[in-house]
Amino acid sequence: MTSVVVAGAGSIGSLLAAHLAKVADVTVLTRREEHAAALREWGLRVSGRSDFTARLDATADPAALPDAELAILACKGTDLEPLAVRLEGTLSRATLMTIQNGLGAEDVVAAHGDWPLLSSVTFMSGTRHGDAHVEYVLDTATWIGPYRGTSEEDARRVAELVEAGGLKAEAFADLRPAQWSKLIFNATVNGVAALTGLPHDFHFAQTDEPSDLGILVRDLVDEGKAVAAAAGVELHDDPWAMNVLATERGHRHFPSMLEDVEARRPTELESINGALVREAWRLGVDVPLQTAVYRLVKAREASYSE
Amino acid sequence: MGCGAVGSLFAAHLSLLDDAEVWAFDLNELHIAAMNRDGLRLSGAGELVGSPRGTSDAAAIPPCDFGIVATKAMHTEAAIAATAHAFTDGYVATVQNGLGNEETIAGHVDRVIRGTTFPAGKLLAPGHVQWDVKGDTTFGPYDERTPLEEVEQLADACTRAGMPAAAVEDARGPQWRKVIFNASTNPIGALTGLTHGRVCERPDLRALVTGLVDEGKAVAAAQGIELDADPEELIDHAAKPEVAYDHKASMLQDVEARRPTEVDYLNGGIVRFGAEHGVPTPLNAAIQALVKGVEASWMQS
Questions:
Q1: pTM of the predicted protein model
Q2: What is the interface pTM, i.e. ipTM, of the complex?
Q3: Is B287 on the interface with A (CB under 8 A)?
Q4: Which partner for A197 in A52, A60, B105, B297 could form a disulfide, CB atoms 3.0-4.6 Å apart?
């Protein structure tokens, strides 16, 4: 069987590791040894849209990782740099795949080794209920594309593996159109949720009154589209349509940036909103509203010390 | 009408005049009972005990020469609707925050006085208000139905009572300076959790504040309003350690206590007047939508 390493066992990493363990030899790299010990002892339970317990290996020591063919880096964006440092000099045969929100994850990893790289974005979601239990909430797809030293064919093989494990995946020749669709969606929805305290619900699509939140959301999306156009990216999906669709599912999703702000944790602001705003400045596109949201969330993080 | 901190400052001072009979109307019955029993006490920036006649029953208010509305802006309509009978021959002034209060009052009484006031305080206990900041008040006629001489009488009474006030022909300048100040700083504090001084010392946020100020100035200019001073000066002055560096904007206090904010009358007012005069106000609209979103989030859980 294919040997796969999943580095990072938050909700996305746990979902990938558990499902892939059905069709591959999976080793999870955790930060904490007791987390790895719990996974080795109890396995990884999945509830929600799937219901099974996966048997897999786990370690907190990068040097103890097997000589895998594929390694998925599934930590939060804020943890990616330290993870890439830990992986330096390991996984010499592996292709590495990033799955972080925002822009720039691939380059963070590329700076720490000459592994072939795939990039991916995921729309599935889950909720962790402990070190060895994850609930599978949204069964939307993960999109995979080549980045450095890889081809569409490599992306397709990984997508097929993920599908064989029971998750949804699709391969693309160029991931940027999908990545930018999600970037604009995330910068807008996560930023507004973090500032208002609202989960991603009907307010985000409401456009009846001038002060309705949906008007702001649409204006923020329009600024993002202008940046994508200036970057020469033709979006795969309209982020406004993605927003409306998500609010119509009737499921009140709490974006991670809102959860982070409420728990007074650092957010993924820099790799999402920061990346979008910096691209806009670089390309000379005026984005006053995205800039305002970026600055407000950044200041909100600064208020943790008040 | 409305005897919170600011209303109490006016009521307590004016009640000390020999030539005035002052009524204080508020729905907070404990506050009214306490001031009727022990007087209305101010402490802090000045110490005094006034003796306005308090009531929570609007029908008890006799015909008056002047009224002062001091409620939060979202309560203007209810306050003036209940008390308009007392001002058939009188004048009603507003000393409230925001835009649109004069229009609301004019929907119920004929003669309206525009006003802007800078003193501030808080209700410490029933009958007792802490007076935090002294400051001036500016009054002016709302329209041609209010002669300046009447406005001068009110300003003179306030000044003699210890609340310095001026009567001017066009009071929109100070009003818009204060509205722009409040709309450009209060919601930033409310959305970030930062005090006024911390908002101002972050260059990225200070730039956002200036973006909001510039929109407000453009809307004021389009109406021919001359600001009496640059709101930027007021913002920087307030950021000094000895002034209001550590002050949590009232909107931040509202958000922390989950009370409705005045954002519709501050940023919402700038957006509304901007639309009427063809001046774009995207940042003020964004800030209004975000604060409305914060208020909506309280209904969720």
A1: 0.88
A2: 0.88
A3: yes
A4: B297
